[in-house]
Each structure stands twice: as C-alpha cells, then as structure tokens.
Write a structure and sequence with these properties.
This protein is α/β, with parallel strands linked by helices. The protein has a domain of 48 residues. 23% of the residues lie in helices and 37% in strands. The protein is built from 10 helices and 20 strands. The strands form 2 sheets. Strands 2-1-5-8-10-12-14-16-18-20 form a 10-stranded mixed sheet, with helices on one face. It is globular and about 70 Å long. It starts with a helix and ends in an 8-residue tail after the last helix.
C-alpha cells in the first residue's frame, strides 16, 4: 500500500482515539480532504522542482507508535544543550516523555499540544490561533489532519521567560521505519520575550520521516529568538514547515543549522502584520555524501516601516545537493521597507550542486531592497598565505570555512548554543579549532 493510501485509510481509526473538541475535528477533516486532493508534493510543482521525496515515500512507515519507550538520560544528554538550565519538552517516537521533560504552568505555559487541543481551559486560545497562519498546502495539511502532539508554549503579556525552552523529538528505531508529525504552537504576548531551541534526533539507522509544523504568533513588541539544530542520522529525513505572524514593533529571529540527515526541507514563512517589525532569517548548511538540503523562505511585507534580514551560508562537499529559494514580497502599502537577502555558497567538490533562486516582488516605490547570491570555491590565495605561515592545509580550510560562516554565528544570542554549533561545524569539517567564534 502506498503511503498516501495508508494515511488516508488510517484516519478514521486515528480520530476515534483522539480526544479533541468538534472545532478541532472540523479543522482536521478539512485538512485531510485537502491532502487527499493534492497528495504529496512532486517535482512537477515549481516549489519542489529540485527536491524529490520519491525515495523517502517508498518506506513502509509505522504511523502511530503504541507506547513511550524508555530512554536513559545518559544516552541522549549529548543532544541537549545541557550546559544551560532550561525548560524541556521531549518526545520519544512522537509520544511525550515526562522523565526527560521539565514543563511549567507557572507564570506561562510550557506544556503539551495534546493537552491544549483537548482541554476546555485552552479552547478559546486554540480557536484563535490553531491552524490560523499555516498554509493549506500538501504536507502542512497532512500534519494538521494528524496533529496530536508537540509543544504548546504561551507566554503572557509583559513576561520574560528567564531560561530557554528546548523542544526535542527522539526516534528510537523500535520500528523498521517511523513517521512522526509533531505540531508546535507558540504564542508570545505583547512585550514578552522567549528563546527556543528545537532539535529532531534519530537514535537509529532505520528510516525516519518527520513532517513538522510550527506556528508562531508574536504580538506587539514581542521578541522571539528561535534556533533549529538539524544534525540527524543519514537515514532520517525532515520536512520542517514554520509559519510566523508578527505584530507591530516585534522582533523574531530564526537561525537554522542544517548539518545532517538524508533529505531536509525547511519552509520558513514570515507574515508582517503591523509597522516597525524586524524579521531575521539566518542559516548555515554543511553537507557531504548524497545529502540534500532545501531552504525555502518567504517574508511578506504587508505594512510600512518594516525590515527583514536574510543571511544563508552553505558549504557543500562530495555529491551533496542544496536548494535556496528565498522570496521577499513587498505590498504596495508597505512603503519604507528595508529588505536584505544574501545567499553565499562554497562548493568543495566539482560534483556538489547548489540551485539558488533569490526573488524580490516589489509593488511599493519607496523601499530599500537588495538581494545577492554567490557560488564559488575556497580562496586559493588565502589558503596559500596560511600555509606559508605554518598552518596545515586541512586546518587552513577549516579556518576559512569558519570565517565564511561567522556572519551567521555572530548573531547567536545564547553563548552555549554558539559553542555547540561551533563544535558541530568543526566536527563536520574534520578540523580542530582552538577558539570559539
């Protein structure tokens, strides 16, 4: 049975075992109908022109793990940013792990999506925010139809969360192939602040497919600092759909670090609904082997006096492939917009490939918008200069790569995250760096 047919045939049994109110049931039903109509994306779609899911969809995935598997903290501690005190929302094979988690309802909610979807206490909030900014496309609709579990974060007005929140999804490999569909809802009230770190980590060489949807609502003057760490096993594939709605004077920053996995697709969408908004999108991608990473970004400037800044760096080796498709839309009313987009790539192998498509759609006439894209190789003169001063070639290449990525790393606000990413980059490049950027 094909995966699409398997999903459609299991929906009724899934709904019978899920405790939600009628409004959520209706949202799910409509999403399923949309997925049944459009199916999985193919390369015939312009947005998926360079990314094929055919090899991933051939697996016979287990869709609904029956129980939570126990994991010892010592076995997975390395995947946490354990140097800092933080809230933790941890899932194992799509199920909540209370043993590894640290949640709270004191001053703010850092808890479970399943509780928010089923409890009358959260009904008003769910009706207002759930599935309100997410697109009704194929994989987002599929996630909506089967959405049960994930992180629910609600930060009230004028509240600063004192420590970061880590959202971690582990897959143990209890099944030959596993598909999970986490759904996160993050609501940050007026003048509130929060830092979030998200990671999806397979603990097995078995096939894994994660289809994730995250909705973020940043109210007036809210500040959201979000980090996505993607360094998974080569048998794991990830489709990450993030939808962010901002109100006036808010600042939302998303850093995406893509180092591991088989196929990784990041859809990052910002919608600016107010004035004096700042949207920041930054990323570092390092691939090797036959890895494939696809970044699709959208910033929709709707009202005047707003800014957006995109800076994506990519380093590609061997037969790996990458895609960067960045779109900025400036509506006619969005005068005084300042939009910056930059995508720089280095190919370490003649067989590595990058498909880049920066786009600006500008309908206003009083704006400052720019975009740029470069594709090249390491600077031989700079490498020769370093070798003349006693730095080995391999170490010199590593230093050049670190310098190349530094414009992204320097904006990371959590020192422990910056140190962890620095180490991951060093390991990926196979060099020993004696300093932190």
């Amino acid at each position: 049975m094909e995966l699409q047919d398997k999903l459609l045939s299991s929906y009724i049994a899934f709904e019978d075992n899920v405790d939600t109110d009628s409004s959520v049931h209706e949202v799910r039903s409509q999403a399923l109908q949309n997925f049944e109509k459009v199916g999985f994306p193919t390369k015939k779609l312009e947005a998926w022109k360079y990314t094929s899911l055919n090899s991933v969809l051939k697996q016979d995935y287990s869709l609904f793990p029956a129980k939570v598997e126990a994991i010892e903290l010592a076995d997975v501690k390395q995947y946490f940013i354990h140097e800092i005190d933080s809230y933790k929302v941890v899932f194992i094979n799509g199920k909540y792990s209370s043993f590894l988690s640290q949640t709270t309802h004191e001053h703010y909610d850092v808890c479970l999506m399943s509780s928010a979807l089923s409890s009358p206490k959260y009904k008003e909030t769910i009706d207002k925010y759930f599935n309100k900014v997410a697109k009704q496309d194929n994989l987002t609709s599929l996630n909506t139809a089967f959405a049960t579990e994930g992180a629910y974060i609600h930060i009230p007005k004028n509240t600063v969360v004192k420590k970061p929140i880590q959202i971690i999804n582990f897959i143990t490999g209890a099944e030959a192939a596993t598909m999970v569909q986490p759904r996160n809802l993050i609501i940050v009230g007026e003048n509130a602040q929060v830092q979030i770190i998200e990671r999806h980590q397979s603990l097995t060489s078995n096939a894994v497919l994660s289809n994730v949807v995250t909705e973020v609502f940043a109210d007036k003057a809210a500040n959201v600092d979000y980090y996505k760490i993607q360094d998974d096993e080569i048998s794991a594939s990830l489709v990450d759909n993030s939808y962010i709605e901002q109100k006036s004077n808010s600042v939302v920053s998303v850093h995406t670090f893509s180092f591991g996995g088989n196929i990784t697709r990041n859809n990052l969408n910002f919608y600016q609904k107010g004035e004096h908004i700042d949207s920041i999108l930054k990323g570092i991608t390092i691939t090797e082997g036959k890895q494939h990473v696809d970044h699709h970004t959208l910033v929709h400037h709707i009202e005047p006096n707003c800014e957006s800044h995109q800076d994506y760096k990519g380093i590609y080796d061997e037969r790996s492939t990458a895609v960067f498709n960045g779109k900025v839309i400036v509506e006619k009313e969005a005068q005084k917009t300042n939009a910056y987009q930059q995508n720089n790539n280095v190919l370490l192998s003649d067989k590595a490939t990058i498909n880049a498509k920066p786009q600006l759609e500008i309908f206003a006439d009083d704006v400052k918008c720019s975009h740029g894209c470069t594709i090249g190789q390491l600077d031989d003169d700079a490498l020769f200069y370093m070798q003349q001063r006693g730095i080995p070639e391999k170490q010199g290449k590593g230093l050049l790569m670190f310098a190349f990525a530094n414009t992204v790393l320097e904006s990371v606000k959590i020192p422990e995250v910056k140190q962890r990413i620095t180490k991951l980059i060093a390991n990926k490049l196979g060099v020993n760096i004696g300093f932190d950027l």
